[in-house]
Write a structure and sequence with these properties.
Length: 371
C-alpha cells in the first residue's frame, strides 16, 4: 500500500499484480473512523465498500494485490460489495453484454406504459450484430458500445430511438445527427444495421479511448465551413409568436452590447410588439448584439412575427467542428432564455431560401442534414 502524494494522511492506493485491474483506492474518514475502498478494472467498478476495521482493509489490500477472484476477495473482506456486473466482467465481455441486455429487458417490464420502447428493445435484440454489443439507454434512446467499460465507445454504431409521439422511430448517429425516421421498430433496427461500420464486432473488455469518427457529424461540420455556408449564415425558426420575439428582445437587452436600427438609423430598443405594430411600409428593422466576447455577433431581422430570423457572424470561427459547436451552443442559449428549441434552419450566406442544416436544442437529435 502506498500513500497518496498530495494527501498522504487521507488517501492510499494498492497496486494489483493483475494487469487488468487498476489501483485500489482507500480513503480515510475525516470525522468518524471509517475506511472507504473503491476498486476498478478496465472501466468497470469491481468492488466498493466501507468499514471501521483497519484489519479488514489490510486483508482486502492483500487479496487485491494478489489478483484474487472477486468472490474470494469478498470472502476475505466481507464488508466489500461486488456487483453482478463485476462478476460477469471476470468471466469475459460476452457475459457483461448478456447481463446488460437482461437488465434492459427488466427495465422494459417495469415500463409497461410505453410498449413502443419495449418493441424497439426486442427488435434490437433480435439483430445478431447489435445483440453482441454492450447496450445502454439514454432518454428512450438505445445506444451501443463496442467495449464494456466506461467511458464507452460508440464505434460509429448508430442509436435507435423511440420518438415521443409514439408513432415513429429514429435512427441517429452517435453525435446526434438524424440518419432516418421509420414507422416500425423493425425498420429502425434494419436501418441502423445498414449503417454499421464494416469492422463492427463483439464488444471487448476495456474502456473507450479516442472517439471514433462519426461521418454524419463530419458532414454537418463540413456544411458549416466557409466554402459552403460563408461567414454569415442565416438561421430561421418558424412557428414563433410575438411573445417569443419579446423574449429574444429581453435577452438581447439584458446588459449586452447591442444596436437597434430602423432603416439604418439607430434608435432605442423597443419591445417586439411595438416593432411588429409598425406600418407595413416602415423601414426595415435590425437588432444586432454581441453574444459574448468570444462568440459571434448576431443580427436579428424582425420582419415576420411568426418567423425568428437572424444572421450569425462566423468569420472569426475556424472552419470545421468549431463552427458547428458554436451553433449548438447558441441554440442551447436561446432555449435557456426563450424556451425555443428549434429546429433552426441554417441557410448559406446569400441563399436564405436554401437551408442545408437543421439545428435542434436539447434533443437526442441535435442535427438534421437537409438536401
Amino acid at each position: 500500500m502506498t500513500a497518496n502524494d498530495s494527501n498522504p494522511l487521507s488517501y492510499a492506493e494498492v497496486v494489483s499484480v493483475a494487469p487488468e485491474r487498476e489501483t485500489l483506492s482507500v480513503s480515510v474518514g475525516h470525522i468518524e473512523r471509517y475506511f472507504s475502498v473503491d476498486g476498478w478494472g478496465q472501466g468497470v467498478q469491481l468492488l466498493t465498500g466501507s468499514t471501521g476495521d483497519l484489519a479488514e482493509v489490510a486483508r482486502l489490500a492483500q487479496a487485491w494485490r494478489a489478483g484474487l477472484p472477486l468472490v474470494e476477495i469478498q470472502r476475505r473482506a466481507s464488508f466489500v460489495r461486488v456487483s453482478e456486473r463485476a462478476l460477469a466482467h471476470e468471466h469475459g465481455p460476452e457475459h457483461v453484454v448478456a447481463y446488460q441486455w437482461r437488465q434492459l429487458f427488466a427495465d422494459v417490464e417495469e415500463r409497461a406504459d410505453w410498449p413502443e420502447f419495449g418493441e424497439l428493445v426486442r427488435a434490437a435484440y433480435g439483430e445478431p450484430r447489435l445483440r453482441q454489443l454492450y447496450v445502454y439507454t439514454s432518454h428512450w434512446s438505445i445506444e451501443f458500445s463496442t467495449c464494456t467499460g466506461y467511458p464507452f465507445s460508440h464505434g460509429g454504431v448508430p442509436h435507435v430511438h423511440a420518438a415521443g409521439d409514439r408513432l415513429s422511430y429514429r435512427v441517429v448517429s452517435p453525435c446526434g445527427v438524424l440518419i432516418g425516421e421509420t414507422t416500425t421498430p423493425q425498420e429502425a433496427v434494419a436501418l441502423a444495421v445498414r449503417h454499421l461500420p464494416d469492422e463492427t464486432g463483439p464488444a471487448v473488455s476495456g474502456a473507450g479511448m479516442a472517439a471514433p469518427a462519426d461521418p454524419w457529424w463530419e458532414e454537418a461540420a463540413r456544411r458549416c465551413g466557409r466554402d459552403i455556408c460563408g461567414d454569415l449564415p442565416r438561421l430561421l425558426l418558424r412557428g414563433v409568436t410575438v411573445a417569443h420575439w419579446d423574449a429574444v428582445f429581453d435577452w438581447v437587452g439584458d446588459g449586452r452590447p447591442r444596436r437597434y436600427a430602423e432603416g439604418g438609423v439607430e434608435r432605442p430598443l423597443p419591445t417586439a410588439a411595438v416593432v411588429f405594430a409598425r406600418p407595413a411600409d416602415a423601414p426595415p428593422a435590425t437588432l444586432q448584439m454581441s453574444w459574448h466576447p468570444a462568440a459571434p455577433d448576431l443580427t436579428f431581422h424582425p420582419v415576420s412575427a411568426t418567423e425568428l430570423c437572424f444572421d450569425v457572424d462566423l468569420h472569426a470561427i475556424p472552419d470545421g467542428a468549431a463552427r458547428l459547436w458554436t451553433l449548438l451552443e447558441l441554440t442551447d442559449e436561446l432555449w435557456s432564455k426563450t424556451q425555443l428549441t428549434g429546429p433552426f434552419l441554417m441557410a448559406p450566406q446569400g441563399e436564405p431560401s436554401r437551408p442545408i442544416l437543421a439545428v435542434q436544442a436539447l434533443s437526442g437529435v441535435r442535427l438534421r442534414l437537409l438536401d
